Amino acid sequence: MPKSILIVEDDTLLGETLHTMLTLLEHNPTVCNTLSDAKTAITQQHWDVILSDFSLGVGTGVDVMNHAISENSEALLIISSGYEREQFEEQLKGLDQVLWLNKPYKIDELVKLLN
Fold first, then answer.
1. Can you list the alpha helix ranges (DSSP code H) found in the chain?
2. What 3-state class would DSSP assign to 69?
3. Which H helix or E strand runs over 113?
4. CA-CA distance, 81 to 48, in Å (whole number)?
5. What integer best gives the mean pLDDT of the chain?
6. Higher pLDDT, 91 or 19
7. For residue 29, is the peptide bond before it cis, meaning its omega torsion is within 30 degrees of 0?
């Protein structure tokens, strides 16, 4: 079943690549490159999945997830990073429902989380 997926990624090429792969898998992805755009998208639309990079230049994936939670989003929440989750445990306190995906990851790993 196709899912509406918000991709929050400040690396334009990676965002476009994820968009292409998820479209080929018959999902409906949208890419936001900034925290501000992501917050607007979360407020204005229902998402099945919100996938955010941890580091966004201005702000973090934690900010994205906190906004989604404050908007009562029922989306599956995923943060991806090249760093291990343990390095951010303090920032992730209270966000037990947020899944972590280590970069680099294979598309199969992402698909497994989506299903």
1. 12-24, 35-44, 61-70, 107-114
2. helix
3. helix 107-114
4. 20
5. 93
6. 19
7. no
Distance CA 57, CA 47 (A): 23
* Annotated domain spans of the chain: 4-114
8-state DSSP, 87: G
Residue 64, CB half-sphere, CA atoms under 13 Å: how many? 35
Residues 8, 52 contacting (CB under 8 angstroms): yes
Q: How confident is the model at residue 13 (pLDDT cuts 50, 70, 90)?
A: very high
pLDDT at 1 over 90: no
Distance between CA 32 and CA 41 in Å, rounded?
A: 8
Q: How far apart are the first and last CA of the chain?
A: 9
Cα–Cα distance measured from residue 3 to residue 114, given in angstroms and rounded to the nearest whole number: 8
Q: Which fold has domain 4-114?
A: Rossmann fold (3.40.50)
Q: What is the pLDDT of residues 89-108, one digit of tens each?
A: 777 777 788 999 999 999 89
